[in-house]
Structure formats: C-alpha cells, structure tokens
Amino acid sequence: MKLSDITGPFNRDKDDSQKENDLGFGTGMTTSGQRLINRDGSFNIIRRGLAAWRPYQSLVEMPWAHFLLVVTLFYIVTNALFAAAFVFIGVESLSGVQASLTVWGDFASAFFFSVQTFTTVGYGAISPMSPGANLVASVVALVGLLSFALATGLLFARFSQPKASILFSDKAVVRPYKDTPYNSFQFQVVNRRNNRLINLVAKVSMSWVENLNGEKIRRFAMLELEREQIFLFPLNWVIVHIINKDSPLWGKTEAEIRAMEPEFIALIQGYDETFAQDVHANSSYTCDEIFWNRRFERMYYPDKDGQTILELERVHRIVALEEEE
User: Contact, 238 vs 177, CB < 8 A?
Assistant: First the structure.
C-alpha cells in the first residue's frame, strides 16, 4: 500500500464531503483528550467482539518477546504431552530407561527422550522397543519436522519484514517562520538506521473538535507543507507547515488552538534500498506535545576532519528562540 492510497482523498476539491476527508476515523470521536493515533503510530482503538484471528499474521506481527515466549511454550507443552503418552504406555518400553520409583522420575526420562526425538538429536542411549512406543516416537518426529519448518518460515518472515526506523521528535513547536509575519508548526524526523532512504514524502493532517449546533464533531484538514518531499535523507528533516491564510490555525492564539483540541497526524513514506520496497511511518502530536516560541536544536555539525556529525539523541531537544542557532 502506498501513502497516496491513504491520503488520496485529501487531494480532491474542497467541495468534497467531510466523509471523504476524515482519514477513516469519522467525525464522532470527540472525547476530550482522546487521540486518534498513538505516538508509536498504532491506532488508539481497542478491538472487541468478532475480530478475525489468523495465527500466521499474529505470530509475524507480535513483539519479539511474545513470539519467543509462544515458541518456548509450544516446545515445552508439546514435548510434555508426548512424555505423558510414553508414561501411559510405560517407560519400560523405552530401552535405556529404568523405571523410577516416582511418576515424576518416569515423566522426566520420557520428556527428555521426546525432546531428543523432536529435535532429531538422537543420542542413541534411549530407543523405543514396543509398537506403541515406536508409534508415538514416529509422531514426535513428524511433529518436530513440521514445527521446525514452520518456525524457520516465521523467523524469516519476521526478519525480512521491511520496517522504517524513522524517529519522530517527541515534541513539536510553533515559532515564527524565518523573516515573515507568519508563524509555523514544526516537528522533525531522523533515520535511526545507517541505511539509504530515498524519495521521502510527508503528509500532515490536522484533526480538531468543533461545536456545530451544540453538538461536538471532529473536523479534518490537510496541511500544506513548506516542503513535502526530499530525495535523500542523510540528515534530519524539519517538517514545516506555514500558518498562513489557508491554514486552519490562521489568526488563532495559543489558547484558541488549545481549545480546539487539535491532533496533528503525520505520515511519511520512502523507498528503502535494503529491502527494495516502500516503507512508511506515522505518528501524531497533541497540544500537550506542542511548545510555543521554541526551536529545535541543530542536530549536526562539522568535525575537524571535514566530516559531518549527526547527533541522533538531539532529535527531541528544543531551545528558546533567543539562543543562537
């Protein structure tokens, strides 16, 4: 999916209906303090009821810690079930295993034999003797082969999944725009990875709450940017919206803007040469994350060897306008 597929409705004439300009959130989400998109780019929506669940997609998309936990639990539970089957048949059907005085002792011996068969290690010290034990061992080997094939495919899918490591500043600023009478809304982004991202396109939409005939509705407007595309991304990129007569923020004071409960939704798409695919990232800013009459600290500077140093941790730093740039 391309960014133009998401933001295409914003490029239509201004006479289009409000439904075509709401990014898909609708006009009814008006709870005070509610944001549409979280800072990490995820939707601020909890899905309940008849949501579809697909094991493959869930295993590919879940966090790494959860994925490793699921794999470990599957490994332990599966071998525990097969160990219980061996204990039910009788551990005397396994050559090299002496019956223990306790059930847990027999279960431990059967569990580790199941692990050896499941992983095809096959030390040779223990082997099945009875038809029942051989049948269970055959099933263990089959399940082990299938499980490792699936785990390998899932690992490859997770590692090969293209993801943009674009870091958004945790603050936005409103400051005068150069030597003009206009203010501007600004935030900045930087690439956390040392790879080549090219042809970056930025889109910023503003959402705010408006009273219409005593009823709250949510409005949306696409913000015109000073520059919405860059071809190379070696440094940081300060994304600027000039608050002119065409801006929904035109003529409004800080208090009036805060009363609008705005949220600025940012979407960025670029081409990642490592994966040879388009990648995208998005985030948002609310009024609590906007600072007036501040600017971003410069992130890069030349060193004595003639190279340029880019300090990634400075992406979040803002300073007073009076401080020299």
Answer: no
